[in-house]
RNA polymerase sigma-54 factor
Amino acid sequence: MKFEQHFSQQQKQIQKLAMTQQLQQSIQVLQYNTEELQAFIENKALENPLIELQTNVTDYTYSGTSSGQYTNEKESNLMNQIPDSPLSLFEYIIDQIHLNYRDTFLRKLVLFLAEFIDLNGYLTISLEQAAEQTGADSIQILDALVLLQQLDPAGVGARDLRECLLLQIERDDRSPVLAYIIIEEEFEAFANRKWAVISKKFDIELSDVQEVFDYVQTLTPSPGSIFGSTAGLYVRPDLKVKVVDGHPTVISNREGIPTIRFQQAYFSKMEKTEDLEVQEYISEKKKEFEWLQKTIVQRGDTILRVGTEIVERQQEFFLKPERPLKPMTLKEIAQKLDIHESTVSRTVNGKYLETEFGSFELRSFFSQGLASSDNEGEDTSVSNVKKLIQEMIDQENKAKPISDQKLVERLKENNIEIARRTVAKYREAMNIPSSSKRKRYD
């Protein structure tokens, strides 16, 4: 058997997209929200002497159901427009320790424990470890913990949820008489709704346990959460929707995005220099300006195109008081606009649309569809199914809550066929307890 090898040269033409640095930045710019884009443009202006910034008057819109405006009047005090920097939980605790306790060894122990308070307000170090690291005895560490737990917010310094609730109940004059002792002695049974055990032990009615349960619901499991960051509380909407003659119209909102201008005078001056390095540098910075200007425009146009298509498909949301949503996917919008699905994903994440009744993230308008059983070709969005489940549970007899299987049957009556496990998944996603945990004993 004879083997032969033949070598030949062939010329092939292959089309390949090269991921250049500018292309990567263009993709990143599309993903930026307004605040991130503003910071990016400002950084570019610092690096490029040919870029001049002109900042627009900014509208600040709350991301909930209300909106407000920032006014830039000449007579206003600019210092009043600087937001206060809220204290962190740690700073708040330290201030209280220095204010309330004398400079003793015990205060040093309290300050030591304060360093091990997490963002939720819980103590993350054991008393044994604290004693070992400080050289204090167990009684001194315990005294320091007691002093720490007397500070605000109520519940701070707790080592577990049970202790956190007890600290809050102890300070509340409005707490039910049996609340403290039930949580202290029968916390597991209380949390697992084994209320018959509690009723028998304390010789009380189930309605009394229900009263304690309703009260505990008003307490916070995370006392430190009120000191959470306020970043992201205010957003600048990229789009605005106005209903004109019964039809929602989308307009682009460029407020807050700096306008870039080309420093032509400086460029002309530097262009006349005979230094080749300077000429190369100034030419490169001009190209960078042109790329940045084009990228900003493309970003705005893409957001407007995607937003317009979303509003067109979800018109009923803007026209009807029930705010119904139709099933809609990223792929459908991508195919309609002839762009990649990942482009739509980057466009809707972190971008907001302002209406007369609140501001909404663009991605919130997307929902998978569930086929209806009436075979009319109409699909129901998951959000609408969740809304229907919520309404059924709100209207149920709290003494006999509706089971997941009963919800399946009622949904079927509304031409929606889904499995019981799917109903359970939606219910859990909405933080609704199971029927056994929704039962009340009033």
